[in-house]
Design goal:
SH3 type barrels, Biotin--[acetyl-CoA-carboxylase] ligase, alpha+beta, seven-stranded mixed sheet
Length: 312
């Protein structure tokens, strides 16, 4: 269900009161129970306000939506951290529940980088997955299904070439429009849950000069875009479910093939920085273990994320 915040302050006048005793008589025990129930309701509403969950109706940022399982925060440090905190407190959450924030003050990226987020312009959301029988050795498939879900939504709304830059950046042409950070909880050699953090530039028209040449937004590439951020989140939810169901059916080959077909700069000679040195090489594929296979001087080599950087 959609979690809402009552946006007005708590006061006695905002809550129903019981009729005076001369108007309607209740047994003393029942009267005590009813009074306690309404008192509890007031506490719950106060807690919701404390959590900064906001009312979505008639809000231009979100528009009208039939969103399911979306919690919206006015501000948080990181939606990934917020979702992990809920899980650590044993808060019951349905799979694909999304935590999204209007303002994220300490968003995370790969390799410890930060995600630049301007309030109201970016999609910053985290989704919960409960992989069934997925071992840590196959954890890269979570990256695959998350990347494919975001790719599908971006490509629907952008009439340009969209690709997945290994491991999980979304590119429009040669510019990055979004990124994904996945954090897994492993228990007894199984992935207990996965927190999928997604950042997507939506309405930005300008970027800092140091990244403007390699960064873009959905609106910059399609000024006619008429989507709200909330609707994009729910679309991603639907796609995550679609690809996760493929994963549950162990359709590993189909998922990996699809991912490789959409790989940025695959089969093209390009410049990379490898262990601090520039070299020209060709991406062959991404392997099941998540390593990038490249061809350099007729030799095939495999690299981990920490070993190689694209030169854009």
């Amino acid at each position: 269900m959609l979690h809402l915040l009552l946006s007005y302050p708590i006061s006695q006048s905002h809550y129903p009161s019981f009729p005076a005793s001369h108007e309607l008589q209740f047994p003393p025990v029942l009267q005590t129970i009813l009074n306690f129930s309404f008192y509890s309701l007031r506490i719950i509403i106060a807690l919701l306000i404390h959590l900064n969950i906001i009312l979505l109706q008639n809000n231009t940022f979100f528009g009208h939506s039939n969103a399911q399982n979306v919690i919206v925060l006015t501000e948080t440090t990181s939606t990934n951290d917020y979702l992990k905190q809920l899980l650590s407190n044993f808060t019951p959450l349905e799979e694909y529940t999304a935590i999204m924030a209007i303002k994220q003050t300490a968003g995370k990226g790969q390799r410890g980088t930060t995600w630049i987020d301007r309030p109201g312009e970016s999609l910053t959301a985290s989704f919960i997955l409960f992989p069934q029988k997925l071992t840590p050795q196959k954890n890269f498939y979570l990256t695959i299904i998350s990347s494919l879900a975001v790719y599908d939504i971006v490509s629907i709304h952008i009439p340009l070439e969209v690709r997945i830059k290994w491991p999980n950046d979304i590119m429009i042409g040669n510019k990055k429009v979004g990124g994904i950070l996945i954090e897994n909880k492993i228990s007894h050699s199984q992935i207990k849950h996965a927190v999928v953090g997604i950042g997507l530039n939506v309405f930005q028209s300008q970027f800092p000069s140091e990244i403007s040449f390699k960064t873009t937004s959905l609106h910059k590439e399609n000024p006619l875009l008429q989507k709200t951020i909330l609707s994009l989140v729910t679309e991603i939810q639907t796609k995550l479910k679609f690809y996760n169901e493929m994963l549950l059916k162990e359709q590993y080959d189909e998922l990996l093939t699809r991912y490789n077909q959409l790989l940025f700069r695959r089969n093209l000679n390009a410049l990379f920085t490898v262990n601090g040195k520039t070299l020209e090489a060709r991406i062959v594929q991404v392997c099941e273990d998540g390593l990038l296979e490249m061809e350099y001087r007729q030799e095939k080599l495999k690299y981990d994320l920490k070993d190689i950087t694209y030169q854009l």
